[in-house]
Amino acid sequence: MSEGKRPLAIVTGASTGIGLELAKKCVEGGYDLVIAADEAEIETAAVELRAPGVMIETVQADLATIEGVDTLLSAIGGRPVDALLANAGRGLGHGFLDQDFGEVRRVVDTNITGTIYLVQKIGQAMRARNAGRILITGSIAGFMPGSFQAVYNGTKAFLNSFSWAIRNELKETEVTVTCLMPGATETEFFERAGMLNTKVGEAKKDDPAMVAKVGYDAMMRGDGDVVAGLKNKIQSAVANVLPAAVTAEMHRGMSKPKDGE
């Protein structure tokens, strides 16, 4: 990749939804972009994002694998990364014992393994330069046991915790780590997770552009975390004080597939 005068941002999971909206915010903020996803729609996203003077490079790779992340890292070459927006994620609905374990493993590898590998590689270079911003997309789902979405919620609980831990490790540097914690958002997530036939799948959801703006602005301020939306702030606050058995039952009501459909 050729050296550019604009700062460089990487956005993963950028083909649709929150990731695409985060990429738009980066373009507005003056960044060149490397955008990545595991689907061909990443090329369509690049067309939508193009603007005069903006360098946009696409990477189609399986970010659930070390090899896929290495493909993304190779595309960056030696150019310094000023902002990493680690947004790639995958969901999976229905009861855990009824899920295909290959799909379970893919959720874990996408949300956790690929994400932390990418954060480590980019974070090491940022620390060496003593400059950079990292935004990790967690979720308010990480605050409660995810009945009928158990593995997904578990991975987001990990990311919420992981973000704060590495932020603390980097507190004596100029590298910031921010965790964006959305609630249910109007994206393709629920269809891909097989959750359209649930209360949360059918309910009104947040605008991904709003969520992305909240996350981007928090990253630029260097905040530790941010919950997008007042309703989600209330829900996360409640989840932090109620017993786990109660929040698990609450989640069951939102995520259990409807009987007979």
Q: Can you give me a brief rundown of this structure?
A:
The chain is of the alpha/beta class. The protein has one domain: Rossmann fold (3-Layer(aba) Sandwich). The protein is built from ten helices and seven strands.
Describe this structure in words.
- By secondary structure, the protein is of the alpha/beta class.
- The protein has a single domain, classed as Rossmann fold (3-Layer(aba) Sandwich).
- It is 48% helix and 14% strand.
- The protein has ten helices and seven strands.
- A seven-stranded parallel beta sheet has the order 3-2-1-4-5-6-7, sandwiched between helices.
- Strand 2, helix 2 and strand 3 form a beta-alpha-beta unit.
- Helix 1 packs across helix 8 and helix 3 packs parallel to helix 4.
- It starts with 7 loop residues before the first strand and ends in a 6-residue tail after the last helix.
- The mean pLDDT is 93.
- InterPro entries: NAD(P)-bd_dom_sf, Sc_DH/Rdtase_CS, SDR_fam.
- This is SDR family NAD(P)-dependent oxidoreductase.
- Keywords: Oxidoreductase.
Quick one: CATH superfamily?
NAD(P)-binding Rossmann-like Domain
Strand % is: 5-15%
Radius of gyration: 18 Å
- Class by helix and strand content? alpha/beta
CATH class: Alpha Beta
- CATH topology description: Rossmann fold
**How many domains in all?**
1
The rounded distance between the terminal residues' Cα atoms is 50 Å
Q: Helix count, per DSSP?
A: 10
The number of strands is 7
Mean pLDDT across all residues, rounded?
93
Q: Helix and strand succession?
A: EHEHEHEHEHEHHHEHH
Oligomer: single chain
The residue ranges in which pLDDT falls below 50 over 5 or more consecutive positions are: none
CATH architecture: 3-Layer(aba) Sandwich
Largest sheet: 7 strands, parallel
Family: Belongs to the short-chain dehydrogenases/reductases (SDR) family.
Protein name: SDR family NAD(P)-dependent oxidoreductase
Pfam family, one: adh_short
GO molecular function: oxidoreductase activity
